[in-house]
Every structure is written in structure tokens, then in C-alpha cells.
Amino acid sequence: MSRQIFDAAVIGAGAAGMMAAAQAAQRGLRVVLIDHASKLAEKIRISGGGRCNFTNIGTTPANFISQNPDFCRSALKAYTPQDFIALIERHGVRWHEKHRGQLFCDDSSESVIRVLKTECDQAGVTWRMPCAVQRIALESGDYVLTTDSGAVRAHQLVLATGGMAIPQLGATDFSLRIARQFGLRIVEPRPALVPLVFDAQTWQPFALLAGLALEVRIEAAPFGRASRRTPAPAFLEDVLFTHRGLSGPAVLQISSYWQPGTPIRIDLSPHQPMEAFLLENKSGNRQQLDSVLSRAWPRRLAEQWLNHLGGQELASRRIADVPDRALRDLAQRIHHWSVQPSATVGYKKAEVMRGGVDTHELDQKTMQARRAPGLYVIGEAVDVTGWLGGYNFQWAWASGYVCGRALVGQ
Ligand SMILES: Cc1cc2nc3c(=O)[nH]c(=O)nc-3n(C[C@H](O)[C@H](O)[C@H](O)COP(=O)(O)OP(=O)(O)OC[C@H]3O[C@@H](n4cnc5c(N)ncnc54)[C@H](O)[C@@H]3O)c2cc1C
Predict the structure, then answer these.
(1) Using a 6 Å CB cutoff, which residues line ligand 1?
(2) Where are the domains of the chain?
(3) 4-190+351-406, what's its fold?
(4) Tens digits of per-residue pLDDT, 43-77?
(5) What predicted TM-score, i.e. pTM, was given to this entire model?
(6) Which residue from 129, 178, 199, 373 lies 20 to 30 Å from 258 (Cα-Cα)?
(7) Half-sphere exposure for 379 (CA within 13 Å, toward CB)
(8) CA–centroid distance, residue 393 to ligand 1 (Å)
(9) 196-344 in CATH: which number?
């Protein structure tokens, strides 16, 4: 089998890898793009329910989690949501804003894949796909890859194999393993944007609510400790009760901040102050407490919640007979529901991996490893994790772009 020499080998033909390869090849570099999958960019394909939430027009560094919160700043400034919009519009892709700055394709996520593939093809990127990389060695300053379709020699190497979420689609820890091989530190990876589960006993009273969704305000411990280094944001989004725990956008968002062994806190009535509502509806009211509560809350939730707190007896008491103190206590519990998840459902159902290659190892303007010249890491493999809402793709485009512009030819 022949050995070809390239200016850069990019491993991982996903969002970040295709962007980097196209940018470098458009500047005349000889680039090879290698991926072990037989189908191109599966994560883009399934993203956003098949319509790809490809960016968020409100993107700022505050929408990302990293041990080094400022790291993403340069790349996000160098390649903005408007830049990506301009790119897809040049290819005739139509889009719309759905919710809070989240942009989706009008048709299908296939159109985003087509844009990136066309950009690579027109720039002359060499494809090796499907192709597995068995080994990487450094020889006279070049990266030499042993692959199942022959050896590849490149002056520079880009690790763009993403995170470990959805292993059933071929996600691996490849970038982390190779980064370690070249001496780079790793921030412990964990599933993120992922449903949370509870032990069976804790969840038993709530399992009956499976399928119920409502808007809540949610936060993770340590509550309210917001500093520049350890921001503790709260999200106002929908939560979804499941048979084993909680899901929905609110829970996916907070899962990225949740630390095992700590509680999450949920305000189950973020718009309606419950104490005032219950006390205002008390005087002379012959209705049962669960009926009154159902006027401000889904009935199923009202009944189950009261049963959980005080059994059938509390639910069926006339509100006029319930002491103010008990109503205040009920309101307090509704606004400050503190529960401790036992685990996440894991990488099988996670949207992303948090953690990854420690950003202190990388140059923020280029994504090049400080102590391994010619080695770059981009996309989800880096310890930069976006919130739900298009931020993870924006990070993939931006980190891929700055890397692709920084790669050099010979
Ligand atoms: C169900 C789901 C929905 C999502 N929806 C959205 C959304 O709407 N908006 C958003 O911003 N983000 C979304 N994300 C997250 C987003 O898909 C990722 O953050 C993004 O794709 C990361 O880009 P990447 O280039 O780093 O990795 P990827 O796009 O995952 O690409 C990595 C590539 O590397 C290849 N690869 C992996 N291991 C190897 C190996 N050992 N050898 C060779 N190749 C390898 C893979 O085949 C893949 O092609 C979603 C994720 C999931 C799972």
C-alpha cells in the first residue's frame, strides 16, 4: 500500500473536522480527512430532531462550561454565528429561528452535511473513509499514521473525533487517547446534556407522573454560588417526568453542571407565587386543596404532590380548613424542591461529553498543543462544552475554523 504525504491529517470528519479540513485546503494545503464511519457526520444528521440546531445567534463564552472559561473567547470571536449563516446561505440552505436564538434548517440536517462536504470537495480534500487508524507515531517531526488502508504521513495532525456520547453511532475516546499519548492532560470526561435518574425508593411517588411536562426554574448545587470561575446558572425551561427520573431541556441543561452526590433544586411554579395564590384562595373556600392547587398546576401533579407530602387526607381537605402555616410550607416545597439524582443515564443517551483535552494545553487562537508542535485538538474533544441550543455546533465550527486557518503548508 502506498504512503502519501500531506500537510495535515484530520482525524474525524464531523462538524469540526470538516470545517478545519475545508479551511486548510482552501488555502492550498494538502489535507487528508480520515473517519472510521461508513456514513458521513451521523451526529449532524440526527441533531436537532433531524433539522440540526446549527448555531445560536446569542452565543457568548458564558454559554460554555470549561475549567478555563475564557479559553473559547478567541475562536468564538474569530468565527461567529453570522459567519456560519453566511456560509450555508451561499449554498442556498434556508433556516429559521425556533426558540431563544436557536437556528434550525428549514429542510433537513442533510443540507448542513452537504455544505461541509462540498466545501471539502471543492478545495480538494482527500477522503479516507471508512478508515480506522491503528497507531500514530512521530518520525522526524512528522505524524505517521498506520491505518487499515495504508500509511499516512503528515506534517500536522488534527484530532477531531468528538466526544463519547452515543457510542452506538461510533463515538469513541480516540482523541483523548492520542492526546494522552503525546503528553496532554485530560479533564475527566462525563456525559452531559443527559437525563438524570433517581434511586427507585426516592422516585417511587413521582414515577406515576411519567410523561408530564411543565416549565420550571432549575439549578444545581452549590446553589447561588455564582462567581466567574464557578458560575451556577439557573435555567427556565421545561422539565419532563420519566419512569426513572427527569428529562427535558431544563434537566439536560442542569445535568452539565450536576456533580454526583449533590442535589438539584427546582422551582415547580416559577411564574405563580404559590403562597399568595393559596392564601388568597383560602378564605371561605369549600373546595378541596387538590382542586384549588389544580387551578395553578397540572391536576396530575397537584394530586400526586399532595399525596406525597401528606397522603390522601391532605389532598382531600377543604382548603379553608388547612392552617396558613401548612399552606406556606406547601408553597415553600413547590418553589424549592430539592432532590438528589443517583446518576445520569450515561453516554448512550447523552447529547455531549463534558471534559476532554485540558484547554491549558492548547493555544486558544489556533488549538495547537503547546508542548506537541503540529498537534491540534478541536470540537467536542476539547474541554469546552456548550449549553443545549446550538452552542456545541458553534464551538465545533469556530474551533475547526481557527485550526484550519492556522495549519501551515510546505
Ligand atoms: C442526539 C444528538 C443531538 C444533538 N443536537 C445538537 C444540536 O441540535 N445542536 C448542537 O449544537 N449540538 C448538538 N449535538 C452535539 C453535536 O452533535 C456535537 O457537539 C458536535 O457534533 C461535535 O462536533 P465534533 O466535530 O467535535 O464531533 P462529531 O461531529 O461527533 O464528529 C466526530 C467524528 O469523528 C469520527 N470518529 C470517532 N472516533 C473515531 C476514530 N476512532 N477514528 C476515526 N474517526 C472517528 C466519528 O465517526 C465522527 O464522524 C447533538 C448531539 C447528539 C448526540
Answers:
(1) 11-17, 35-37, 41, 43, 46-48, 52-53, 132-133, 160-162, 165-166, 170-172, 174, 351-352, 379-381, 390-393, 396
(2) 4-190+351-406, 196-344
(3) FAD/NAD(P)-binding domain (3.50.50)
(4) 999 999 999 999 999 999 999 999 999 999 999 99
(5) 0.96
(6) 178
(7) 30
(8) 9
(9) 2.40.30.10
